[in-house]
Amino acid sequence: MGLLLHFFKWDKRWQLLHKCDILVKRNVKKQAVSPTKLAEVGRLLEAKEGKYDTGQLFLHRIFGYRGVILFPWTARVYDRDSDNPKKQTTATTTPTPTQCAKEASPLRVNAGSSEGSGTTATSQLDDAPTSWHASNSATDTQRATNLGTAKTTTNGATSSATDAKDVKGKTQTFYQVLIDTRDCPYIRAQTEAVTFLGNQDSNRSLYAIPGLDYVAHDDIMPYSSTDKHPLQHELFDKFLTNAPDSEPPFVGQDTLKAWQEKNHPWLDMSDVHKETTENVRITVIPFYMGCRETPASSVYWWRYCIRLENLGELSVQLRERHWRIFSLSGTLETVRGRGVVGQEPILSPRLPAFQYSSHVSLQAPSGHMWGTFRLEREDGYAFDCKIPPFSLESKPDDASTPPIGTPAGEESD
Question: Which of 85, 115, 390, 397 has the most CB atoms in a 10 Å sphere around its CB?
Answer without folding.
Answer: 390
